[in-house]
Amino acid sequence: MKKLSTLKDEVESWQGVRQRLADALELAQLEDEELRPELEGETAALEREVDQREFNIMLSGPHDRGNALLAVHAGAGGTDSQDWAEMLERMYLRWCETRGYQTEILDLTEGEEAGIKSITIAVNGPYAFGYLRPEKGVHRLVRLSPFDAAHRRHTSFALVEVLPQVEDDSEIEINPNDLQIDVYRSSGAGGQNVQKNATAVRITHLPSGLVVTCQNERSQTQNRENAMRVLRARLLEIRQQEQDEQLAELRGEYTKAEWGSQIRSYVLHPYQMVKDHRTNYENGNTQAVLNGALDDFIEAYLRFKMGEAAG
Questions:
Q1: Which of the four CATH numbers 1.10.1200.10, 1.10.490.10, 3.40.50.2300, 3.30.70.1660 does domain 68-169+285-310 have?
Q2: What's the mean pLDDT in 77-100?
Q3: d(Cα 302, Cα 58) in Å, to the nearest integer?
Q4: Is 1 helix (H, G, I), strand (E, B) or coil?
């Protein structure tokens, strides 16, 4: 029923565009100068609508239309990398805000001195996974370190994971006997924020060895539900990776993806530049990018992949 409702909405929206186009053509045939401003405005709006729909065609993966789980993990580099992970968290939250997506922090581990060690965010909205999918990979920051007394230049790394939220439980079946569930007290900033009760949840999926933790909610039940959401998403990704690897091996093109190679560099010193190494797309306005202006990078990557597929 949910799929039927989605398809019905899409058909109705296309019919609406067709009707608007027919109305605009009718206005144009009247050749009335007083109607010109209205006609020009509607023409520009229709062009933007068609461009957006053309862009959405690139989001045709099985989970592209759905919600996403976004995780950021600080890499090697201590406090600098943990600060960089927090900068990425802020960047993605700003981007979600501009798109009108709802966000929910499922799990957060803060750094000892500054920043965060890791964070998992549920992103809910149409095409959330499709848009965020190009962000998956290692992000590299080059800057003068605010945590170095000598103010030397440091390079920091953070890993961004993007997973589809599993909407249908039947898509990934989990045997309860395969789970080891532990509860413990949430770690916090101290004082009144420290949990007196064991509400944080750690779930270990024994067959795969996957470990998922959730501690952001005050309810153990809610943390358990959120942990299961993340576990299902990670198991789905593993299954998808195995299928992709098998297909790539059949084609003779399989190479193992390693953690180390960054997809994008954010250089704040000695010059200002954000560059995506897959598409070579660059933007010199680093502050705008770090404030969530990611659409151009996302579109460049999707068009690049579309060109690869066509080639």
A1: 3.30.70.1660
A2: 94
A3: 6
A4: coil
